[in-house]
Amino acid sequence: MTGVLSRPRHLARLKADQVAARLTERSILCLPLGALEQHGPHLPLDTDTVIAERFSALLAERYGEHHDLWILPPVPYGLSHEHTWSPGTVSLDIAEFTGYLTRIVRGHITSTPARRLLVVNGRPEIHAGARETSLMLALASQDVDVLRLRKGWALPPVGHLHTRVLDRGVTWPWSTDAPELAVDGVMGSDPRSASAEFGEALLSSALRAAGDVLSAIAARHSRDRAQREAPCC
């Protein structure tokens, strides 16, 4: 899936007068959410953005015509406070992030006929482990360099992740430079076990699940429209 680079259903590629002509009330806008943050020594800062944008392109390739899906420009910044120890990381705070998203969504809803929006979150796991690395091997293998991981490198026991990060009721702050949680900014599963094949399998599963979500959105739209058009008495 590394060759998904065409942009036939990207809203930003349309001319202004084509927006009203090609989009309708049943169109679904797809907003990829990424980040600019460290992903260990083997993945680029924009990993989450790459995953979100390229998965959105796969969605459009498979379901674009059926659901009239249109991809919006990605949001390249997110909530990345746990990575601010690292060069290159840029983080918004919660108020900035929610305000930014609200303004973007409002802007697209008021400037297009579309009334439905799907968010694609580019963060597939804790951080830079086997799953995320596998997805990048499937989507952008040229950006992955596992040889940059130090020799003799070993991750801390996963139990620490649950008590500090994953368990119910756990909240931030925690940091990906904490030695009991991460090594070189990597948390969770060992990225050296990643493979493009595993990444392809993850993408296929996610695409099937996303198809169900899109169908549910379309069904809700049909019900809402039927209720609006039903006689009042």
TrEMBL record:
Keywords: Hydrolase, Metal-binding, Zinc. Its cofactor is Zn(2+). The keyword Metal-binding applies. Gene3D superfamilies: Creatininase. InterPro entries: Creatininase-like_sf (IPR024087), Creatininase/forma_Hydrolase (IPR003785). GO terms for molecular function: hydrolase activity, acting on carbon-nitrogen (but not peptide) bonds, in linear amides; metal ion binding. Pfam families: Creatininase. One of its GO terms (biological process) is riboflavin biosynthetic process. SUPFAM superfamilies: Creatininase. Belongs to the creatininase superfamily. This is Creatinine amidohydrolase/Fe(II)-dependent formamide hydrolase involved in riboflavin and F420 biosynthesis. It comes from Streptomyces aidingensis.
